[in-house]
Structure formats: C-alpha cells, structure tokens
Design goal:
With about 350 residues, this protein is mostly helical. About 75% of the residues lie in helices and about 0% in strands. The longest helix has about 30 residues. One of its GO terms (molecular function) is transmembrane transporter activity.
C-alpha cells in the first residue's frame, strides 16, 4: 500500500468513527439523571407522573360507563346528561396554558403537589354528590386540578431527562399510560357499577390519588421556578380561558336549549365567547410581552393542519364514547362489566401505537 493510500484510509476511518462528543451524548442519554440518588427515587418520580396520567384518563374513560346508572340515581334530566361528562375536560383544557406558565414561574414541584391535592379532594367529594349540580361542580373542580398537574409533570419530565434512549423510554411509557388509564377507568367503572355503586368509582380513584400524593411529596425533586424572570400573561388568561368556556358551553347546550341557537343564553354566550377569543388572539399576537401562545408556534409547517385534525379526531372520539356507552347499556341491555370488556381492544391498540 502506498503512503497516499495509507493517508486516505486513515482519513476515512477518522470520519467514520464517532467523535468524543457523540459518545458522551449517547452514554449520558442512557444514564440515570444525577439528581436521583438511587433507582428507587427515580422509580418514585416516574410512578408519580405515570400514575397521574393514568388517573386523568381514568376519570374520563370510566365515567361514561357509570353515567347511565348515575343519571338514574341523581335524576339528571336527559338534556343535562352531557355536562357531568364534558365539564371535566372543558375546565382541564381551558386552564392548561395558564397553569403551564404558573409551573414555569413557581416550579413544577409546588404546582404539581398542590394540583394533585386539589384533584384528590374533588375526586373524593364527587363520590358524595347528592344531586347533579354538586356532581358537575365537583367534576369541574377536579378538572382544574388536572390542568395544573399535567403541564407541571411534562415540564419536569422534559427538564429531568437528557435526550437519549432513557428519555425516549420514559416518554413512551408516559404516553402509553393514557390508554391504559382510560381502560382501567372503564374496567373499574364496570366493576363498581355492576357490583357496588357508582360512588365507589370516585372513591377508588381518590384512594389511588392519595397514594400518588405520598409518593410525589418525597420523590419529586424540588424546583422553585424563575419567579422574577417568568411573567404571567394575565390579559391572555382572562380572555382565552373564559372565551373557550363560553364558546364550548354554547356549542354543547345549543341542542338542549328551548329555542336552539335562537335561545338568548346561547346567542349571548356564543357571541361573548367569540369576542373574547378574538381579543385574546390580538393580545397574544400584538400586546403581550410573554404570550401564552407564542405567534411563532403556528409558523411550523403543517402545524395548523395537524391541530385541526386533532381537534376533529378528539371531538368525534368524545361523541363516540358518550353515545356508545348509553347504546350498549340502555339499548343492548349489557351490564357495565360487559361494556368494559367490549372496549378492551382500544386499550391494546392505543398502547401499541406509543411503541411503534
């Protein structure tokens, strides 16, 4: 081999071999984060966040199974039966952005634990509801709690783990616990609805949340945010949150209103909701120095199409769950437990999608 060929071979080998930086990133991405003193503390941290995701979906999925029995016991009018199931998601979705900013300002540890305690309290009280007004109020307050812990949990996961296989695994587990929790709620809803009482559905959930409170208090690393650097977008909060709530109220209640879309309460809430959202959009784009929704978020290619598709998908899915549970139990006269058994395939398919 000539000297020129030797130099060419050495150059090619040097280009193919990984740099020290690449090796360090790969190794660090597989290691346990330094803030966890042992594997037990990491397991406790992950269990808190995964358990929270499980319980958030638990209170959505299983509620549709107990709703026919619950509506009968509490004498809920047919025109009001959508509210106990939808108000939880309504409040949770409307308050996610403000609580995400609260987590940045005051830290994930404080926001997560306070939100988890609030979630536990109102889930427990839901089981003691003696009329549907109390039930709707308890469900709304529980939605407020989940809206605080979800962004705090995501923020802590993102900050704790470096990019790499370990982080990918944790996030895959986090995502897969959504369908697992959904079916777990369906199963417990069917079990309690058939053999106990619908009230036990909430009490079982509150027991699990109580365990999560104890685990999270001792295992989640303490962080206290950036109180002086992060600013709250109060103008965006007071326009976007009530705007979303009023708009969804008008869309949901229009079919039950005496005169439909012509009913005064529907027209007023719809117009005010749209106006508030329009004002909020203007504030986020032109006024707020630290907007809840940065304008460049929508500049990513295809992001608007993706959001529209997700909005339509989850809207149809919610309608399917609501009407399918009533159809299976009231038309087909299936037991709550059999209804849960019929829906198991959704859990398996959704879980596998997170590891595909």
């Amino acid at each position: 081999m000539t000297p020129q060929e030797c130099r060419t071979t050495e150059t090619r080998d040097a280009e193919d071999s990984p740099s020290p930086t690449d090796i360090d990133v790969e190794v660090l991405g597989r290691q346990r984060p330094a803030l966890f003193g042992s594997w037990l503390s990491e397991v406790g941290f992950c269990s808190s966040l995964l358990g929270l995701m499980l319980m958030g979906e638990y209170l959505v999925g299983g509620f549709h199974i107990i709703l026919p029995q619950l509506a009968s016991d509490l004498n809920i009018p047919s025109e009001s039966q959508t509210w106990p199931s939808s108000v939880f998601s309504l409040v949770a979705g409307a308050c996610l952005l403000p609580f995400g900013r609260v987590s940045e300002k005051f830290g994930g540890y404080i926001t997560f634990n306070i939100g988890l305690g609030w979630f536990f309290l109102w889930t427990l009280l839901s089981g003691f509801s003696h009329n549907y007004v109390m039930l709707i109020a308890c469900r709304a307050m529980a939605g407020l709690g989940i809206s605080a812990v979800l962004p705090a949990g995501m923020m802590m996961l993102g900050k704790t783990y470096r990019p790499g296989p370990r982080k990918n695994l944790v996030f895959a587990l986090y995502g897969s616990f959504a369908p697992i929790g959904f079916f777990f709620g369906i199963f417990i809803g069917g079990l309690t609805g058939q053999y106990l009482s619908w009230r036990w559905y909430f009490w079982v959930g509150s027991m699990i949340l109580g365990v999560l409170i104890a685990i999270s208090f001792f295992s989640i690393p303490k962080d206290y945010g950036n109180k002086h650097e992060v600013q709250m977008d109060w103008l965006g909060t007071v326009t976007i949150v009530p705007g979303l709530a009023l708009l969804i109220y008008a869309l949901t209640d229009s079919s039950q209103a005496p005169e439909g879309w012509k009913s005064p309460q529907i027209l007023v809430t719809l117009i005010v909701g749209v106006l508030l959202l329009a004002i909020g959009f203007y504030i986020e784009k032109c006024v707020a120095s630290s907007p809840l929704l940065p304008p460049d978020l929508f500049s990513t290619k295809y992001i608007k199409t993706l959001m529209l598709a997700l909005w339509l998908t989850y809207g149809v899915f919610g309608l399917f769950l609501f009407y399918s549970s009533f159809y299976i139990e009231l038309v087909l006269h299936a037991s709550p437990l059999l209804t849960a058994a019929w829906l198991w395939k959704y859990c398996v398919c959704s879980t596998l999608c997170h590891y595909a």
